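In practice, a research group might receive sequence data for several interacting partners and want a quick structural hypothesis before committing to experiments. The following worked case mirrors that situation: the sequences arrive first, and a predicted assembly follows.
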Amino acid sequence: MNIAVAQSGGPTCAINASLGGVFRAGKRSEDIDRIYGALNGIEGIIGDQLVDLSGKLTDDNNYELLLRTPSAVLGSCRMKLPDYHKESAVYEHITDIFRKNGIGMFFYIGGNDSMDTVAKLSAYYRDNNINDIRVIGIPKTIDNDLCVTDHCPGFGSAAKYVAATVQEITRDSNVYSIPSVTIIECMGRHAGWLTAASSCIRANGESAPHLIYLPERAFSADRFIVDVKRQMQRHRAVIVAVSEGIKTPDGRFAAESYQSAKKDAFGHTYLSGIGKFLENLVSDEIGCKVRSIELNVMQRCSSHIASLTDIQESERIGEAAVEAGLSGKTGCTMVFRRDSNAPYTCSIESTDALNTANSEKFFPAEWINDDGNDIMPAATEYLLPLIQGEIAPVMKNGIPMHLTIE
Amino acid sequence: MNIAVAQSGGPTCAINASLGGVFRAGKRSEDIDRIYGALNGIEGIIGDQLVDLSGKLTDDNNYELLLRTPSAVLGSCRMKLPDYHKESAVYEHITDIFRKNGIGMFFYIGGNDSMDTVAKLSAYYRDNNINDIRVIGIPKTIDNDLCVTDHCPGFGSAAKYVAATVQEITRDSNVYSIPSVTIIECMGRHAGWLTAASSCIRANGESAPHLIYLPERAFSADRFIVDVKRQMQRHRAVIVAVSEGIKTPDGRFAAESYQSAKKDAFGHTYLSGIGKFLENLVSDEIGCKVRSIELNVMQRCSSHIASLTDIQESERIGEAAVEAGLSGKTGCTMVFRRDSNAPYTCSIESTDALNTANSEKFFPAEWINDDGNDIMPAATEYLLPLIQGEIAPVMKNGIPMHLTIE
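A structural hypothesis for the assembly, expressed as tokens:
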């Protein structure tokens, strides 16, 4: 039997480690012959763009580079399959491609949209009595917003980047003797997990960040200014961590609510990010030194400071997916179950793919303080194990080396 | 004799290594008793806020943390001394503080404003026949725009961050199969050195960045769109590196020239950075997928990926300053002289502080291509040696540890 693996959705630092895990477990199994990588997710299956991974991952050096390469070496896509009750042609086509290439198991690494693909494709096979093709999902997302799983592969590395960078920015912010406010905008349109990771630096004795705002709690610009003024009485350099997706009480993104009337000289509606908006607000309302910093895609691609825990777990969950497939499972998503916080232990299970498709896991209300401007220590305890350990990049000419496949 | 050292101007990853070098050389010398650190630059001298560094740098562990701590552990300031011919009181006061604390040498680590302080203070001593207090400047700036010196302490680490991050963003940008443009905004209001460092990834076989714009060459938005369209014919994911300070032919910042008429809903003039402006421009004019990324203060504070070459040289130039002072020098700035590119060798000399005060060294015209949208290979050859080597951070709880002094 041959197998195929593909990557989908937004890139992370760990999605290649899960690919590596699938490859390694595939090589180990006597039941598996060729291991194909499909280019650009399910599009690569539909287009029959398959790469024999044995020709690309030829030695340990390549494999080690793969673990250290951000983004998705096979490329990604954002494509959802139609309802197969209404439109079955693409399902038949995918099945033809699988048959033509002798593929008996398909592993899809991605977020909740990709788990939707896993759920639909496996349900199509179930309803049509096709029993010789198994479909298994491997989660990934820096947003950590997949349901069922304790945490998502890729999140730990992004969280480590956020924590390390907020630590360094805190150092930078304390250099001058005049009062200042620094606003750090983290990714997360609906879930505040990554922004919450900024709290990890408190484990090393920092008082920062002094304010943390997540999308899970309604945001008020007036209350924000009151919060900042109060923190300025306590700290010379106030550090604020804020999710890009914080929302006003009406559920709209704050960046849009507050700026909706703003047009530029050409009449275009132009929205700055929430960080820049809050910077301007502090400047207008308080008048102190203020700056905003958007951590941007560096959160998802800074492999040079990836979490070893995350990379190793991401690899393991890829291996576990192959093992689950070999044991006969299909239509499931592999998930982490945390057994203990200290010492941190975690095992891998599977759940029906439907449980992880199309829904989001939000930051728990009980982990946000009453004022809605900070998180509780229990959240930091949950986060800390995920950012432990480093995986040194392979450097060439002073720059991290990556693996490319094409 | 006691000595004093202070840090000034914008933070870097290497300004603490130079402090370490002063401390180490001071401890080695039998002629030097106490080594004082002044808090917040020259303000700490004026305010008599001196810290005995032996009480802070008590062991090798502290010292190693110092080398790995971004920003300035003693704090910084932005203060220029007045002309002493007109206003000598502050000079007399500084001298009183030096005398009261038995300080015979003062080392000032900073940029061209700080070198102005070194030049003025030493000239005041010369003109007033005060021969027992020496004043020596130690350069630092991520902008690499100090005159005389081949390069500036702190630049190599910022350049390494830029190169490594542009490498990782390039990987991230190539994940989708649709055409895209990624605009990376680097620091540099007047000098393009940091932006040029993005070219280092070509040494590892990357074609990116496909376009590079520096403040030294007049910028045209129309020509930019033509450039981008041309690159889009060659590359699916076009990567653009641009200095924050690129200017229109009239010498104004492009971000201001092009947005001067733009007001928000409250009537405030609001300027986005050049990256965001160019992102909106590409979106309007080309209509493809486009994003902008501002590397922001991470360029100057990401010690976790500092250049070992930079940290070691920064430490050495601090030591060399003490040695120069002990040999009788004053009124000078320590500078690097590059002896060879390959193998890279570099020695340390001194120059009259006036040569480094208040002036800027621009990116050479001959290192910019005719079209003004890229740099020449000779520039990359100059840059590469400065980003070599790594200095692993000391991690605690998965986050880099820093030294704080207060």
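Before designing any experiment, note the following. The first strand of chain A starts at residue 2 and ends at 7. The two ends of chain A are 24 Å apart (CA to CA).
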